[in-house]
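Service request form, structural biology core

Requester: graduate student, group of Dr. S.
Request type: structure prediction, single chain
Budget code: on file
Notes: please return the result as structure tokens.

Sequence provided:
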Amino acid sequence: MLKVNGIKFLLLFAFLSTLNVNFGKTLIVGKKENYNSIKSAIAKVAIGDTIIIKEGLYREGNLIIDKPITIIGINTPIIDGENKYEIITVKSDNVFISGLRLINSGLSFIEDNAAIKLEAVNNCTIINNEFNNNFFAIYLAKSTNCKIIQNSIKAIKKTETSSGNGIHLWYCKNITIQQNYISGHRDGIYLEFVRTSEIKNNFSENNLRYGLHFMFSDSCKYSENMFKHNGAGVAVMYTKNVEMTNNRFENNWGGASYGILLKDISDSDIKNNIFYKNSSGLYIEGSNRVNIYDNDFTENGWAIRLMANSMEINFVRNNFIGNSFDVTTNSTHNFNFFENNFWSEYKGYDIDKNGIGDVPFRPIKLFSLIVEKNRPTLILLRSLFIDILDAAEKIFPVLTPETLIDKSPAMKRFYD
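Core staff response, request fulfilled:
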């Protein structure tokens, strides 16, 4: 994180000018300044003014910002909620906050206390701050056109009930969440009833539940994010028109964990992502008209778990490499489409040398269906009996879905 001082301070002001931040007069807070508390400066600040907070420790309860102002910390001043208070509550449009370290917001299941909460505001920016050991770190409600950029968000809570989310959005529109690091919260990023927002280039790891969790949040874009070592990966629920591209889902491992869970999703695209060493790379339930193109599924337990109530899911040009199970389902019927994927377990041939296998590939093993219905049978995964059972089913399919087949498997992995 950038610590604002000297030349960096001047550079920050130059950056702010590119964002059309309007500077009025400047109020400086510090031990030897005209204002020795943040609250005293807030009481005197006018529209368009800037509050500069110098290095130090500030314990001032809940700070309420109700005017469009700029707040900048010099050498990362610490604002402590003392495990009692919401630290900063923003109730005005056009507020800019940067360079602060906010710690110890109070736990509250009624108020949802946050280090910074934006309530029904427009055009606010939270950039380049540190958040440590807060209940919620950044909380937006009924807000639009706001930016959450380059913040470091960390918590050390042990249970989901004692922790809020790192970045929490409720009923928001046109929000940019970019280049943040989030760790140790309940959900790294949580969105509910959010529209037309972009989540890009964030790193979300070691969160107690999900790295990313969104519900009823249509027409949003998620790209170039890393979700790693989270309790249960990423959950995408009750949403349409989702774009998830160029993300990496890694080591989300556990009995109920996955890279992405899709539940009741429609008319969406999942492209150019990497699913590496997850319990389940992609779990799909109750979803329709989803395009899953150009992804890598490598060394997962299950690459794809495709439930029977999903239809018109298109899998094209994906790489399936070294997974315990490439595809599994809970039905003998299939209403989805597989074409031109690369399967590391494919043993076919290509006589005409066109890069497409001459023999169709059936990615579902009979044993995967057995495991789906009776999980303890996994203990038999590497037994010779199971290998014989799967080989027999591929030659004379009886229980596996007859139409779940890739008729044009690729002979070489894509993107080499």
